[in-house]
Amino acid sequence: MLPWRYxxxxxxxxxxxxxxxxxxxxxxxxxxxxxxxxxxxxAIDNLSFAELRRxxxxxxxxxxxxxxxxxxxxxxxxxxxxxxxxxxxQMTEAQFRQHWIAKVFRAETPTAPRIVYSGEMAADLVRRMxxxxxxxxxxxxxxxxxxxxxxxxxxxxxGYLLR
Length: 163
Fold this sequence. Notes:
- By secondary structure, this protein is an alpha/beta fold.
- It contains 5 helices and 6 strands.
- Helix content is about 40%, strand content about 15%.
- About 25% of the residues are buried.
C-alpha cells in the first residue's frame, strides 16, 4: 500500500494520462468528407465547384430567391475551414484573411463571413438563419439541414471534391 501522498500523485498522473492519451487518439483520426450545408429553405440542391468558390470569396451574395447568403466559416485550424480556404479558394489562411479585409474595405460587400467556433454552433445557426451556409463534417450534417451536391455529388460519393 502506498502512502497517501504517493497515491494522490499516482491518481493525478493517471488522470493526466487519460486526458492526454484520449486527446492524442482524437487528433490522429483522419477527417472525413466536408459537406456544404444550407438552411432548408434555400431553393437549390446543387452547386458547381466554381459557384461554391464565388460564394466563399464573396463574389456571389444572393441565392436565386434573392435571399442574402450568410456565410458561416469555422475558426482557423478547423478542418472544415481548411477545406473552404485551401481546397475551395486555393489560398493560404493569410491570403483568405487579406482578401476579405480588402473586400470589406473597398465596400464590395457589407460583411465578411461570420466566424463560428464549433460544428454544433454552425449547424444551429444554419437552422435558424434563412440564407445561411456553412461547411460541416459530413457525419454531423443531420437534422434540419440541407446538404448541397457539389458538381452533382454528395459527400461519400466517388469523386466528391471536399475532403
